[in-house]
Amino acid sequence: MENLILKTGFDNSLHNSSKSEEYELQMMALMTVFIENAIKTAEIYTKHSNRKTITSIDILLGLKKELFTFLDNDDIEERALAIFNEFKNEELAAPNNDNEEETDEEESEDEEFASPNSDNEEDPFGNYCHLYNSECKEKKNELEDEEEFKKSECECEICKKTNEYAELWKTWKPTNKIEEILYSSIKNIEDKFNLI
Description:
This protein is mostly helical. It has helices at about 5-10, 15-50, 55-70, 75-95, 100-115, 135-145, 155-170, 175-190. α2 packs across α3 (about 55-70), α3 packs across α7 (about 155-170) and α3 runs antiparallel to α8 (about 175-190). The longest helix is centred in the first third of the chain and has 32 residues, at about 15-50. It is globular. The two termini are about 35 Å apart. Mean pLDDT is about 75; it is low at about 5-15 and about 110-130.
């Protein structure tokens, strides 16, 4: 990728709309790789904590670790380029004049899944499971029985680094624009959901 944004820093020289759209796609591709890496870390951290369910705290820890280690990954540029090309192909293949048809289809899907009890805010499945079948009941029970977060005591590199970066996070301050954006986003998630 010509302009690997995170390795070269923000490129504020992009002004015309096609370059601006390309810049947005590049950022989306990089953020996709960033999030994929964070989720992989969360998965490993969860397994090494002898738990089966990835919690929101595991994902938050993965995001924090990724903030500090993202540029150390050798395959960022290759993965981001592949995702960028997927985004570009989807953008080119997207129909322009079919908005009315899509809207009609979306409305009929909404009606199909609309719940007669959709005003019941206590039931998170109310909007989608108007039949309330056994599969929905099972999923609801799984959510209610979610495992409690337990810190990994594993000595593998991923778990050790995840724990180290969680501690570093408490006093660390961003030094550039991209770090500020990522830090602010992760901090908002942490604050919004009262995590850690």
